[in-house]
Amino acid sequence: MTEVPPAVTQQAPAARGGGRWRFLRRRLLQAVPVVLLIVTCNFFLLRLAPGDPASVLAGEAGAASPEYMAQLREQFGLDQPLLIQYLAYLWNVVTLDLGYSFRYQESNLSLIAGRMSATLLLMASSVLLSVGFGMLLGLVAALRRDRVEAALILLAAVLAYAAPIFWLGLMFIVLFAIKLGWVPTSGMVTVGAAHQGLAHVLDVARHLILPAVTLSLFYMALYTRLMRAAVLENLRMNYVVTAQAKGVPPRRIVLRHVLRNAVLPLITMAGVQIGGALGGSVVVESVFGWPGLGLLAFDALHARDLNLLLGILSLSSVVVVLANLVVDLMYSVIDPRVALS
Amino acid sequence: MATLHLPPALRRFLRQPAAVAGALVLLGVVSLAATADLIYPGDPFDIVGRPYLPPFTDGHLLGTDTLGRDIAAGVVHGARVSLLIGTLTAVLVTAIAILIGGAAGYLGGKVDDALMRFTELFQTIPSFLFAIVVVAILEPSLETVVGAIIIVSWAPLARLVRAEVVGLRSREYVQAAIAMGMRDASVLGRQILPNALPAILVAASVMVATAILFESGLSFLGLGDPNVMSWGLMIGAGRAAIRTAWWMSGIPGIAILLTVLSINLVGDGLNEALNPRVAVGSGR
Amino acid sequence: MAAAYGNQGGAKMQRRDLLATMAAIGLGATSGARAQQPAADARGNTLVVVTTPEPTVLTNAINSAPSVAELGTKIYDGLLEYDMGMQPQPSLAESWEMSDGGKSITFRLRRGVTWHDGRPFTSADVAFSLLEVVKKFHPRGPGNLGPLRAVDTPDEHTAVLRLEHPYPPMMKGLSSLEAPIVAKHLYEGTDIRNNPHNNRPIGTGPFRFASWERGASITLEKNPNYWRPGRPYLDRIIFRFINDPATRAAALESGEVDVAFFGTITPAEMRRLGALPHLEIARGGYEALAPVMLMELNTRKPPLDDRRVRQALAYAIDRKFIVDNIWYGFGKPAVGPISSVYAPSGLFTDDVLRFDVPDRIERANALLDAAGYRRGRGGIRFELTQDVGPYGEDYRRMGEYMRQAYARIGVRLNLRSTDQASYVRRVYMEYDFDMTSGWYVGMGDPTLGVQRQFVTSNIRQGIPFNNVARYSDPENDQLWAQAAVEMDPAARARIFHAIQRKLVEDSPLIWIMEMELVALQNRRVKNLITSALGVRGGLYETRLEG
Questions:
Q1: C-alpha span between C335 and C349 (Å, rounded)
Q2: How close C256 comes to chain A (CA, Å)?
């Protein structure tokens, strides 16, 4: 499988310890102008959009008089010149005031924070599933190369890589939720149940299974193939042959060395996965009714709630930047040969 | 037995069963798309039967949807749309990637830095979300969908091209050409790019599959061109009836699966054929 | 190298365990999930309703959005209520009489009514609400209470409405839906739009506001001092907001929710759920809204400026097909601008130009030929673009059907789907459209909701939901003006019949379907729909059984 070139790959003589902190600081500083630029682009892009929130609210009310619309516009600050709106927005972003949503009647920050935990849960579990099972299945496929298991795993991987996520989600719902009744069809909690403590955790877990699995399959397939290829390649390398000749037990070779090296490409792709997870979650959240940021962004777009949408877009850009950062750090931790230049 | 003198790359390709299978399926999809007007003449949006008919009833091979439209007609015409969008996107993205990645890799220095910052910017924007925003703002149509996909997909390919160009630039024959005074454009066009072509080709073929998945996702969310019958639109339309007639969403999805799968397999095959590696495990 | 790796067994074992655990979580926890009645019984005398979207305020005096209206009407009362035939019934007003040729209406108000905070309800509240709140802030206020000049309050239980001219439609717009009475002592002298009581409402209605859990639910509890003895029967009503349609349907099916209002569940699902043994469809209760689905045509843009073309477009559509296959029977083909729900008042007539005749396609083709639009290449006469109403998937399906229907008469229809904001801007602000699809509410009387679409004075660019077709006809304007002030019901009916005949002839709009905004309810719910307001009523007669 052709790999998408990773966003960051730096190989050079090592520099450890304090170098890591310096690297971190420098990267964070570099990230600031990037994020700012993205925020600016988003702002002007959305302002180019036809229509404004006042039209939407008027449309939803089913009727409007000119006074009503003017009042709404004033409330949203839409009667100011564009530059003023931009500067006001920049200042708000810096002070973490992402605006107020008249539709939801709460501050955008708290709206986003509330939905963010749902999306983070979904993202985290899907990444863990992808990486975990990807590693496992890839390892099995490499070590059991000539057996049926390997062929089946590869077949499943190739299918999972080609299937559209939303369709898989729908088919899973049909099979596991509707026909078999093993899991609920949608949502995050059982309506009206108001569970507490452990019951609540289990309730959420039940609802999480299908969406998390669906979201994880694409990258799981990718990781399986990457892992398999990487393990196979490592197994041919000199250090493995030497270790075997020396009598080191095979298990130790695999766990200590092969695994460590083989996992590197996975880590890089995991960074890409996390970065793109928000976008992927829009579709999955839509199919499963998962109350997260993706769905909120979709609603915000339709309601022309530009502040909210801007907040979400900017936030996810920040997530991408941070994810890349974390990936670079983890890379250097796992492979000491990598320099954080 | 007469020996066919096939180019070595093609021979390598044909030696892989998975790649051949993929190529055959792809051929099938392309022929369906090409003959769509012959097999199912007319508009796939036409209401031709009772709604909710299951497959194999009343002459409808794959049944009818909630309005009574023939699903098989939709699948066949949808193949056209998917292949068209996929190929068009891949071609345009490749062109942009070659332009930007090539320039960055060849010219190096400040130009390289600037272009790479620019590319990084696009890689940082969450792609699907941004595509949704762009299409919704500019109103869903074939043009805006293709445009949005291009905007969010060109960056990784540009990086690939740049990496290839950088790698090839230091080769002896390229250095020799430069020393001989060959113009930059010629060096790029005659010496470097042809050798980078295999890698670019493989990545571009994968791009077709990615574009198809992207477009179907957008159509599913209701952001596709409403005048065009696409697989994503069919899946979205069938969602209302998922409990009683799951095949309305199921069948078009299988179509996407098979098409994307075959493209991926062909891409893998191309990779093996054009960039042959020492077979893994052969040196035991 | 791939031989002899003993740990493979170990890795496999882990995987099996993990899978087993996951399966256990799924299977074990489902045993409690299918309970239907037990979950409902545990709630006691509480009605659980699902609606969408979550309202932004709870006072429908200043906001007419559907979910706000659904909630506000349980907390507030109006002067009047209406039975299933839209005939006025006493509510806060016990009796009323007209005088001065209809320019003065004296309402005798009910005694002993108190606000939820204990203060007494008086005529001062009525005067304040109508003049300072509804007329100024309700989106339909200026229309509903147009000629209202003053409200005299000779004593605490009498309110005299003084009008500039007679205005019979007003008597159909005084419900808790259109003109709820709010408390003067809470709103006077405040910024009405931002008054905190918009979110913590105090009314005179059968239910009191109890709590609002943002993003989840709103709870209303019984008003023990309600002026109707023995009512309401319910102890509580809980409104749940569930964003996802599938989850809503599942909640209704499992019994977690008792009632689903129209619009929360797709028509296809409604049919399926309504057939289940423990659920049923609650019909009626939308007469006070008189909703009609229609298409607006840009009458200033060729070829739509030719009446023959518009009529042809009206002939080409099979309304019955749309009702049956896109809306699953939840509607009735429309014959004109005025819905048949007005029939009890005599205002409706179907004696108009009919577009559902057997030879309608031939007629359509003939009209287009006569108008000079012959078939050209590919059999196409001309192209049109339809801006699909951003109200849901069903409108897109309808657009797709119309593409085919219009192809039969040689018109190529292109669909354009946009989100709400773009739609409003393109259609209402810029008049950049050929035809739209959408729906209008006629409300209690045609003058209140239907007139705004057809009178010249309501061609106001930039304001949504008005005369966007820009239809302007002096005779039509005159008829509407007469209908607004005609006090004799029989004469008024005759005027409206004339209006209908003329409008259908001119067809500035194409009327498709009278919408039946049904609700879906659990069979244990009784008396949900008892008036023309349906689920937008006070629900004080509603009971739970079993």
A1: 9
A2: 6
Would you report the helix, strand and coil content of chain B in percent, each value rounded to 5?
75, 0, 25
Encode chain C (546 residues) as per-residue pLDDT tens digits.
333 323 333 333 333 333 333 333 333 333 333 334 444 555 678 999 998 888 888 999 988 888 899 999 999 999 999 999 899 999 999 999 999 999 999 999 999 999 999 999 999 999 999 999 999 888 888 889 989 999 999 999 999 999 999 999 999 999 999 999 999 999 999 989 889 999 999 999 999 999 998 778 899 999 999 999 999 999 999 998 887 777 888 888 888 899 999 888 888 889 889 999 999 999 988 899 999 999 999 999 999 999 999 999 999 999 999 999 899 999 999 999 999 999 999 999 999 999 999 999 999 999 999 999 999 988 999 999 999 988 888 898 999 999 999 999 999 999 998 777 778 888 988 899 999 999 989 999 999 989 989 999 989 887 777 899 999 999 999 999 999 999 999 999 999 999 999 999 999 999 999 999 999 999 999 999 999 999 999 999 999 987
* Phi then psi dihedrals of residue B51, to 5 deg: -70, 165
**Element containing residue C148 per DSSP (H, E):** strand C148-155
- Residue in C8, C25, C426 nearest the CB of A144: C8
Closest B-chain CA to A164: B213
Provide the pairing of β-strand C104-109 with C148-155: unpaired
Domains and CATH numbers, chain B: 18-276 (1.10.3720.10)
Residue A252 and residue C186: Cα distance in Å, rounded? Answer: 77
How far is the C-alpha of A143 from the C-alpha of C498, rounded, in Å? 86
For residues A261-286, b (16+ Cβ closer than 10 Å) or e, as one string? bbbbbbbbbbbbbbbbbbbbbbbbbb
Residue C93 DSSP SS3? strand
Q: ipTM of the assembly? A: 0.86
Angle at Cα B53 formed by Cα B51 and Cα B55, nearest 5°?
145
Q: What are the beta bridge partners of residue C282? A: C519
Q: What span, in angstroms and rounded, lies between the C-alpha atoms of C414 and C417?
A: 10
Record the tokens describing residue A96, joined without a space: 């973490």
DSSP sequence for A109-138? HHHHHHHHHHHHHHHHHHHHHHHHHHHHHH
Closest CA to C438 of C409, C399, C476: C399
- What residues of chain C lie within 8 A of the CB of B67, using their CB? 325-326, 397, 400-401
Amino acid at A238: N
User: Is residue A77 within 8 Å of residue A99, measured between CB atoms?
Assistant: no
Exposed, middle or buried, A131 (CB in 10 Å: 0-12/13-18/19+)?
buried
CB–CB contact C25 A205 (8 Å): yes
Sign of CA dihedral C271, C277, C278, C282: positive
Nearest CA in chain A to B119: A7
Measured distance between the N- and C-terminal CA atoms of chain A, rounded to whole angstroms: 30
> CA B93, B95, B100, B105: dihedral to nearest 10 degrees?
110
Query: From start to end of B79-202, where are the E strands?
Result: none
Neighbours of C279 (CB within 10 A): 21
Return the closest-CA partner of residue C195 out of C204, C182, C186: C186
| Dihedral sign from CA coordinates of C446, C449, C454, C459 | positive
Closest CA to B199 of B167, B155, B176, B177: B167
**Residue B33 Cα, gap to closest chain C Cα (Å):** 22
From chain C residues 242-271, the ones with a CB under 8 A of any chain A CB are: 242-247, 250-251, 256-257
Residue B133 to residue A166, Cβ atoms within 8 A: no
Q: Which of A59, A73, A143, A123 is closest to A270 using CA atoms?
A: A123
Q: Does B232 touch chain A (CB under 8 A)?
A: yes
d(CA B142, CA C243): 30
- Put simply, the answer to whether B280 touches A232 (Cβ < 8 Å) is yes
